Every structure is written in C-alpha cells, then in structure tokens.
Amino acid sequence: MENTILQPYFKDSTHFKDFWAKGNGKQLLEFSGTEVSFKDFEKFSPYFYHVDEIGDQVVKDVYLTQKFHEASREIEGYIRNGVSENDNVPESVKQLFLQTQKIPDWLDYNLIKSGAELCMRSNLDSLISLRDYCLIGGYDYAYLNKPLIATEALKKGAVKRLSETLDFWVNVTRYDALEIHKKGYEFAIKTRLIHSYARLSIKKHYKDWDTKNWGEPINSWDMMATYIGFSLVFMHSLHKLGNTFSDAEEKGIFHLWKYVGYILGIPENLLPNDKKQATQYFYLWTSVQPSADKDSVLLAHSLLNESLENPILKYKFQRKNLRYLHICCTWFLLDDEVCKRLQIPKVSNRKAFPRTKWIINKIYDNLVSRQARINKGNKDQMKVLSDYHNITQNSNFH
C-alpha cells in the first residue's frame, strides 16, 4: 500500500462536522483551547499504512516457530532478565528489547508518577471514563473496529475483553510500573506482541480485509488514536464528572501514555505531549473514519450487556441496576448523536446519577487529602481487577 495516498474522505460528512461543531469534538476544542486545521494531514496520514514491523518479526521468529506457551515463556525470560547486544537470540528480539530497554532522553519519571497518581486518585471515575466514554465512544469509528470484528471479539465476549483492558490499564498506571522489567513494562511488551500476533493472523486468514479504506490492521495511526483515548479523552471524561487536576497531573497523564506508546512501538512523532497536540492529532485522524455501522452497534450493546452477563454481582436486580448506571453515564459523557448512532437505550432520569457524582466529587475533593484519595483509589481499582480475574479465570465462566 506504499503508493496509496490517503485523503480526509469524511471531512465534509455530517457526522464529522457535527462532532467538531456541536458534539464531543467541540467540547474537546474548548477543553484544550485548540484551533485545528488540515495543514499536517499529509504528515500523519502515511501512518494509516504503517505497522510495528519489529513486533511482527518477533512473532514470526518466536511464536510461530514453537508452541504458544513455550514462546510466551521465552518472551517472559527476556522481559525479566533483559537482552544485550551479545546475546544469542533472534535479531528481531534483540532489536525490540534494545529499543524498549533504552530510556528515551525525554523521559521524566516524576511526570509519570504524577500521571499514575491522577489515574489512581480518580478511583472508580477512572473506570467509568474508560468504559463509558473511551471504549464505547471508540466504537463509533467504524474502521477502527474492524480488527475486533476480524478477530471475532464478539464471540469472546465483553467480560473477557473488558477484563483484559482493565488488566493492562491498571498494571501500567501504578507506581514505578513502567521501569524496565517491572509489571507495567511487561504488560506493554506483551500487548505489543499480541497486536502483532493479531495483525499477522488477520492478514493470513481474513481475506476480505480492505487495506485501502481500513488501513493496515492495527496500524500506527489507529494506535495513536487509541492512546489519545487513554490520555485526552480520559481526562476530558474525568473533567465532565467533576474531577480537577493539577498542571503536573495533566502533563503527567500525557507523559505516561507517551512512554507506554514508545514501549509499544508507536512512532514517537505520533505521541502527543499535551492536550492541544492531542486534539489536533485526533481531529486529523477522525477525518478518515466513517461513523458507526452495524458492527459498531453490536460491539456497543455487547459492552452494555456485560453488566448482565458478569457474575461479580450476585443478584439479577443488581446487575440490571449497574447496566442502567452505565447507560446513564454513557449518555452523560458522549454526545447525543453518537449515542443515537450506537443505539444506546434511552432510560429515565439519566442525568441524575452522573450529576450526583459530579456534586460528590466537588465535595470529596475539598474534604479528603490527595494522598488519601490516591491510596483509596489504588485499593478500589485493584479490588475491581481482582474481581474480574476471579470471574474470567473460573473455568465455569464462558
């Protein structure tokens, strides 16, 4: 696809113009104080056809030459012990680990700490934001979803998918998690190789893949958009729920995800440093994405119904109530047009819970110390993750 010249095909479409003129896009422009334009489109658009070739080669050299569990054990050994220039390992493995073990000049561990603290301090609002804004909002971008559909994510089920996302997010946002050989670093490396494994599988088995329109599977530009979801969109959601953050926390959240993106093999010039850059980058990317299609609706409803399927809550009425609360938050956080496209059910008093949450956050912010909130948030988030682990690792749960 080297000769393909991508155009901002959807920049004149109703869904694109409405999003940026009166929907969540307009809110992001106000939130970030950004003026957007298409002048850098040609600088970014080639990444729609760009992938992590090093990660792909590692999968070919390690995972496709032996049994999966043996390959996983080999990679875990490299993660824990490191790889040096003189080690007798495949060249691709050497390339990947020498890149990820090299600390970039721009890295500031204090900023990463501030970003991690914001993630923990925001407690369950972080998890609401990830689920009811970042994840479900992402389903509105039809082409972005194609790898999920190709890898039959719907068959795997939303509980497992949510558990995996939560596992990754929690483990990369704890104190010191991203230091070499630590848990967050391990999760980032493994996620990178999962992406490569999925991409190679799609290219081999999914004959209907439309590279010209959809880009390469799990391409670098889509990866950029996903990680802007974890930074800009996540922070905007916390803001909408009544949370405040310091300058250090704001810089920190972008710095943290910039470093995660670096470990994942996303080109550095695609990783924004602040909300102005992130909004501009996101604006350009949305111009090549059509709005929700039937797969988008199926993915959104699978996520909404996760609350009913998930046996963490014992009683049916509790699960129905949790689904109702997530629907309320989705309507509150996403704009109405996106909710209509994804066919989010209309429910009564849908603003009551999010508005109550907003008020409680304002009071809580003034009454409880920052460190106490960080400690409680970390504990509560780890409890949710533990509950998901117990459910998904139970052999009776399908």
Automatic annotation (TrEMBL):
Residues 154-352 form the ER-bound oxygenase mpaB/mpaB'/Rubber oxygenase catalytic domain. Pfam families: MPAB_Lcp_cat (PF09995). InterPro entries: Lcp-like (IPR037473), MPAB/Lcp_cat_dom (IPR018713). Signal peptide: none annotated. It comes from the Bacteria. This is ER-bound oxygenase mpaB/mpaB'/Rubber oxygenase catalytic domain-containing protein. It comes from Chryseobacterium ginsengisoli.
